[in-house]
Structure formats: structure tokens, C-alpha cells
Amino acid sequence: MTASPRTATAPPQPAAPSAPAAPVTLGLEARLAAIDAAMTLRLEEAAVAHEVRTAHLAIDPIDLADVITVPLTTAHHPPAPATYRTPAAALLERAHHHMQSAGWCAGALTDEDGAVCLIGAIRAEAGGNRDLADDASAILLEAVRRQFHDESVPAFNDRQRDGATPARMLLEAARLADDHGR
Length: 182
Prior knowledge:
The protein is an all-alpha fold. It contains 7 helices and no strands. The chain has a domain at 87-180. It is 54% helix and 0% strand.
């Protein structure tokens, strides 16, 4: 027997370790785009899962008339108090109540929302009685001039920031009219 020459093979050597790769730094735009893509996939998967889970539910359409209701009649404001017996004083008190209910405005007798200025409130409550409205306006001007020295009621009204002072002046004018017996 002849001995066959044995070839000696060396066990395979592991490859020499290479230097680790430098981490890739993504800019803000690239990171946002990656997050957007991931979120879009998650939302699409959730939408499909929702459709699968709710496919067996029967959905009846909703009639909005059954859900949304509005009053059938217009809202009525409570009646104005009747503290004064004289015509101009009573009118000024009603004008005060009207302004409190409808709101105050400047630059117009009445605005698109129904709010009124001092003269607009007086005219609204005068019911077409121009003489009574003029008498009440004159008394109001007297009350305004006593405290503020304005040239006219509209000028006084328009320089106010809110309706508190005009409403107070209507009540003061009502007291003044009652004191004068008007």
C-alpha cells in the first residue's frame, strides 16, 4: 500500500475585518420625507383594517332635518319695565331696554345685526311718533351735555367704545325727563 500524499489544506481564514462604515447622516427634509412615507403606510393600513372591521355594520343615512332643529317662532324679548308715567321718560326707558336687548352700534341708526345707536333706539320705540322721538332726543342731548359737553347725540354715541355709557345715558335722560314732567 502506498501512502498517498496528503495534501494539507489550511482551514479557511476569516476575512480581515474592515473598518466600520461611516453612519449616513440624513438632512431634515430627508428625515421628514421618510417619516411621512412611514405614516402614510400606517394610515393606509389602519384604513383598510377599519373597513374590514366595520364592513358588516349597516349604516342608515342620517336626515339632517331630524338632527338640526331651530325655533319655529322668533324669540320675543321680555317686555320693557314701565317705571315712568310721562311719555318722554317712558320712551327713553323703553329705548334703554331696546338697546340692551338688540345691542349697541355706532355709525348707523341700526346695523345689519339689529343693534341700534341712541337715536335708533329712540326711533324704534317711538312707534312713528316723530314729535315724541324728537322730545326724547332733546332731553337725551341735555343729559349728554351735562356730563360730556358733546355737540350732538350722534357724535357722543359714535365716540363710545361700547354700549355701556350710551345705555346709562338713556336711563339718566329718562330720570331727567321724569323730573321735568315730560
